[in-house]
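Narrative of accomplishments. A recurring question from our advisory board has been how the design workflow behaves on a single, concrete structure rather than in aggregate. To address it, we present the structure tokens for one chain from the evaluation set, followed by the sequence designed for it. No filtering or post-editing was applied between the two.
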């Protein structure tokens, strides 16, 4: 499975649960597809964002 198909599958799994990915998440995915960031970078961004919310 190529990278684009993997992301399509992942987004489909999110939507099956009745959820919509955020604009920020979709932008991160596009950057990863272009090779500008890695999936590890995406994880770090999301961890930082949601851990900051948990501590408030």
């Amino acid at each position: 499975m190529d990278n684009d198909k993997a992301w399509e599958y992942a987004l489909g799994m999110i939507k099956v649960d009745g959820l919509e990915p955020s604009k920020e998440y979709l932008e991160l995915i596009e950057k990863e597809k272009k090779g500008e960031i890695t999936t590890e970078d995406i994880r770090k961004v999301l961890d930082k964002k949601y851990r900051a919310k948990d501590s408030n």
